[in-house]
Amino acid sequence: MLVGIHQPHYLPWLRYFEKIARSDVFIVLDDIQFSKNGWQNRNKIKSATGPLLLTVPVVSKNRQLLHETRINNATDWAQKHWKTLKQCYAPSPFFDSYAPFLEETYTRSWTFLKDLNRHMLTFFVEELGIDSPIVYASELNVPGSATERLINLIRAVGGDRYYSGAYALDAYLDAEALADAGIDLDLQQWEPQVYAQRHGDFVPDLAIIDLLMNEGPQSLDCVLSGGSGTR
Fold it and tell me: What is the pTM assigned to this prediction?
């Protein structure tokens, strides 16, 4: 059984959903350390002037865990994000399909980043038609660190194959430890596919909302056409 594991993102990009769709079980690694300059609280959309970064402000503390990270609501970031999304995508063919969810989301009061990300991820997975079960690491109570913990998480859900981003081999993943544990390693081989976009030339690696607004029900086909899946 193939298991994908990834930390939660805000408005995740397309390759994130390819990993979910290819996995027999997908684990959201929601109890790791918050990364200030990562994608846990930000992502890119496309505006009339090019890629635009949307960032959810957080209350910053040293070495805080992701599931403990609070949103900084001192500024009206949610209404700013919703206004920006309307400006960028209102003329898009499928804007009306997703606007009610987005408006409801951005008018709610959010305290923790994890809750906002989980709420959005659940919606996007359903809209894409992905049926892979999603499990949250914080609910598994699995010990360990680095590759050791990945092995324990995979075993906890009954997996014997790990679906990893190829970059992980150079960053943190111990392939030998996986092999010793009897877990096969499949590396994600995915390239962004050109789809209809507004505002000029195609820009890859944008948030999933850009694809949904432009392709609607065809979005999952576009996500899965980005590669052969694994090697």
Answer: 0.94
